Amino acid sequence: MDLNISKPLVADYDSSDEEDEKACLVPGKENHAVPLISASEILDKNSSDVSSSVFTNPYQVAENYEQSILEKHVKMTEIKEPELKNKKICFKFSKGKCKLGDNCSFRHLNPTQINDLMRITDDEEIPEKNKEKSKRRCGLKDDLVPPKKYMKTYNNYK
């Protein structure tokens, strides 16, 4: 069995440093290192193809384009709904006697703001189930059987 090992197995014992220096110092050849491409150039090349990105939404791009056409001359604003809609109005503040000020857990509104808020709440439709909260009376439907107590009073009334 003939083993011809041209290079040593361990890199530390290699004496190729001298050979590399001789190859670099050859007078006929000019060795110029090729400059590496910078990361910004690579990213710029890849960023031009944004349409294939996972993070882009073509519908959002179209909507932004339409909005930019509308906003050429005047900046559009978003209509904000009252944030404190669910807070109750401070009764003492409406009378002018609330001592808590900003620490009050209720809302402090000017009369003009109260009128605006009332107009907004009037526009919303409240379901009829919430409007009509009357007492339940037994025996008003045909399928219900009234309790014995009500039946006694009914029979005594007849």
TrEMBL record:
It comes from the Eukaryota. InterPro entries: Znf_CCCH, Znf_CCCH_sf. Gene3D superfamilies: Zinc finger, CCCH-type. A zinc finger (C3H1-type) spans 84-111. Residues 1-21, 124-147 are annotated as: Disordered. Residues 84-111 form the C3H1-type domain. Keywords: Metal-binding, Zinc, Zinc-finger. SUPFAM superfamilies: CCCH zinc finger. GO terms for molecular function: zinc ion binding. This is C3H1-type domain-containing protein.
